[in-house]
Amino acid sequence: MRTLVLDNDWGKWKFGDTDAVMTFTPKTDDKTPSYDNNVLTFKIAQANGLNSGDYIASAPGHVASNSQDVELDTSDLAQLEPDTYAVELWITNSVTKKTQVYPSDSYCFFTIDQNTMGVTDISNISKKTLQAVYADLLQKVNAFKQGVAGKDGSTPKLVAGTVTGLPSGAQPTFLLTPLSTDPNTYRIDLGLPAGPKGDKGDSIKGNKGDPGNDGVTPHIDQATGDWFVGSLDTMVKAQGPDGKVPDMSQFVKVSALNDQLTAINTAIKSRVTSDQLQAVADANSQTLSKLNSLINSLSSASASASPSTPASDSASSSASASVSAPTAPHKLMDRR
Q1: Contacts for 78 with CB less than 8 Å, ≥ 6 apart
Q2: Beta strands 226-229 and 232-237: pairing type?
Q3: Residue ranges of the chain whose pLDDT lies below 70
Q4: What is the distance between the alpha carbons of residues 16 and 80, in angstroms, rounded to a whole number?
Q5: Which stretches does DSSP call E strand in 141-246?
Q6: Residues whose CB falls within 8 Å of the CB of residue 241, separated by 6 or more in sequence, listed in order
Q7: Could you check whether the bond before residue 183 is cis, i.e. omega within 30 degrees of 0?
Q8: 0.70 exceeded by the pTM?
Q9: What's the chain's Rg over C-alpha atoms?
């Protein structure tokens, strides 16, 4: 919740006092809001009724030296007459254009009291009062003299603010707000109502036009090779320039490629296949098997013919006759 508290030291001040400062303390959930890149503006309205149209003035807010409070100079409210006023603090982010309004509930109030010079009912003016006014006026006239020319004031700067679209028939709005970073620069915010909706226009279809004449078909001029439109030479060639003759040395001739393919095919056909190697291995295995059978037969015959042969000789003969058949080669994988 947003709250706004006015320091009671200057909750009341006299009309015409332009050297006073009202100090306000805004809080959001008991925390001081950020003032960086924000525009601080006090919105002021009559305190009686607070109905629509009671808004009467705006004034810039200034961040106090404690970086927490916001000050309102009475010099910015010199146009207000003695009365009690309701005030709100609007904090607008200059980037997002979003506005925080303090307080969230009700309003903050201050009072401008009448001063001794505020005579409004001429029927009740006493003789003594008239004499005092005359004496004061005479004193001022006698003391009047031409003063020194003052310095030129600063030309205010105007920057574009927001433009809000309003419904048709609404009253346009105009808000001039001084920037807190530069009181001499004012932001203009406009509310512009939409114009009344116009009547629907008549839909009129024109008559169908006459068919156009046939156009001229472009042709190629045989003499120049240019495109012509009628008798107009467009200077655009219908055929591009001849291309460069390619360097055939950079390419492989068909005959040479055929020769290389023939040599490769011949080499493929003449290579030994795994089936051929397997056939040789099988033949060798059969030959070894026959040799072993023959050796075994010879060993048996020799043993039966010589029974008195010493055991050592018999063992030697048996050993020499026993020939191990070589291990059959593994079947080779066909890697064709």
Answers
A1: 16, 18
A2: antiparallel
A3: 49-53, 118-148, 248-249, 305-336
A4: 9
A5: 157-166, 173-178, 185-193, 219-220, 226-229, 232-237
A6: none
A7: no
A8: no
A9: 59
